[in-house]
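Q: Hi! First time asking for a complex rather than a single chain. Here are the components, and I think there are two in total. Is that enough to go on?
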Amino acid sequence: KNQVEQSPQSLIILEGKNCTLQCNYTVSPFSNLRWYKQDTGRGPVSLTIMTFSENTKSNGRYTATLDADTKQSSLHITASQLSDSASYICVVSDRGSTLGRLYFGRGTQLTVWP
Amino acid sequence: EADIYQTPRYLVIGTGKKITLECSQTMGHDKMYWYQQDPGMELHLIHYSYGVNSTEKGDLSSESTVSRIRTEHFPLTLESARPSHTSQYLCASSDGYRDTEAFFGQGTRLTVV
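A: Yes, that's all I need. Here is the structure of the assembled complex.
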């Protein structure tokens, strides 16, 4: 069964600190993995997208890693800001015959305190 | 900024009413999706489309229906709204050929009273 598991479920950090969010998946055949940021009451916004051959990608203070062998990904946030408070969702796309489906994790709820 | 729009953003409606949630994208994407999301929970796929006149049901059983008469438009209809339909509904689209990222609309927060 294709699944995406994220940890931790929630995380509280102080402003300026770094943090790392985890994503494990069993989706096969794998196409790509994306990290999204979703503010409360809004639609998700893409942070990074990585294919099988990519093992790291950065977008400002966000750095995502991918280990396709162990089927694990992480999202590292550097020097957190209050505006980073949001849900971070890991999404994996398969490469099925029907042009791919998206599988969502439950998200990690990040809260940044001043 | 993604060019995908949902209307209305918020809707409060009585039980038994028929409603249509609108979703439009101007990126020419073939693939479009409808997701349902309860507070603090993950997104559940309820409908998707790979192109005009193509619609499929998703993983989560839903009493809603969709249509795809035009590439840019993917409306979702509830024939008779019930309180159990209260949720956030998110529309998304992606380039089916290149399978790049999916862009999401802002969502419609539906409350059925």
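A: Chain B touches chain A through 27 residues (CB under 8 Å). Let me know if you'd like any chain examined more closely.
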